[in-house]
Write a structure and sequence with these properties.
The protein has 235 residues and is mainly beta. It has a single domain, classed as Lipocalin (Beta Barrel), CATH 2.40.128. It has a 10-stranded antiparallel β-barrel. Strand 11 and strand 12 form a beta hairpin. The longest helix has 14 residues. About 7% of the residues have low confidence.
Length: 235
């Protein structure tokens, strides 16, 4: 249900601009080999998360990733959907014994950017929805989920590297629901005949979030998602 709602939110955002004239639409489904490092805590039970880039497919139980842009001259509206369901195989000792953890993550970005050869401004909203389950071997499992919205601002630059190559760089920082969230992305695009392109690069999202009470217990997340991306851009 959350995944369908996330997709609907992205679609609704761009449908509102569908009647605009002269828009160049770009849709990019992509893969993200995200390594994950950080800490999660539900009440007294905490769990380190350390998933190497090379191991992500072993712990990934589901995922949907999509980036959409509509551009007119230097003006760009964009949306990005990340949904990942992860079950790290490694375990860690806690007071209650050995703990296993599961993490379901939905991240939606909606925003506006001014794109040019110089560095332009980007502004937007980043929605987070996380469901975390920690199962100590000698205690009852704990399941909690929370969602919040951060406002972010940053810079964006697209530079031509040759006749068929471009490099797009984004960097932003946000806050609101979270104490701090940071995004960074570099995408190299190789344009093909017909305007489509193969896109590869690097993406990082970092979040530091803490809530004193989620259904009666503290909820804390200090985690970085990072790794290589590859996708195909339909233009």
């Amino acid at each position: 249900m959350k995944l369908r709602s996330a997709g609907f939110a992205v679609a609704t955002f761009f449908a509102s601009s569908a009647s605009a004239q002269g828009l160049d639409w770009r849709v990019t489904p992509y893969l993200w080999g995200a390594g994950i490092q950080g800490d999660i805590a539900l009440g007294p039970v905490a769990r380190d998360v350390d998933v190497e880039f090379s191991d992500v497919l072993n712990v990934l139980s589901g995922g949907v990733l999509m980036h959409v842009e509509a551009q007119s001259d230097d003006h760009v509206v964009f949306g990005d959907l990340v949904w990942l369901a992860l079950e790290p195989e490694e375990e860690i000792a806690t007071i209650g014994g050995v703990a296993e953890a599961e993490l379901d993550t939905t991240i939606i970005e909606l925003g506006y950017a001014r794109d040019s050869d110089a560095f332009g401004l980007e502004l937007g909203l980043r929605y987070w929805d996380l469901d975390i389950e920690i199962d100590p071997a000698l205690a009852a499992g704990i399941v909690r989920g929370d969602s919040w919205i951060d406002v972010f601002g940053g810079i964006r630059n697209t530079r031509e590297l040759g006749q068929s190559w471009t490099l797009t760089t984004r960097a932003n920082a946000g806050a609101g629901g979270a104490d701090l969230s940071i995004g960074f992305q570099m995408d190299f695009a190789r344009e093909l005949s017909g305007g489509n392109a193969i896109v590869a690069g690097f993406k990082l999202l970092d979040v530091d979030y803490e809530e004193d009470s989620v259904r009666g217990i503290p909820f804390a997340l200090d985690t970085t998602f990072f790794g290589a991306t590859v996708g195909f851009r339909f233009d």
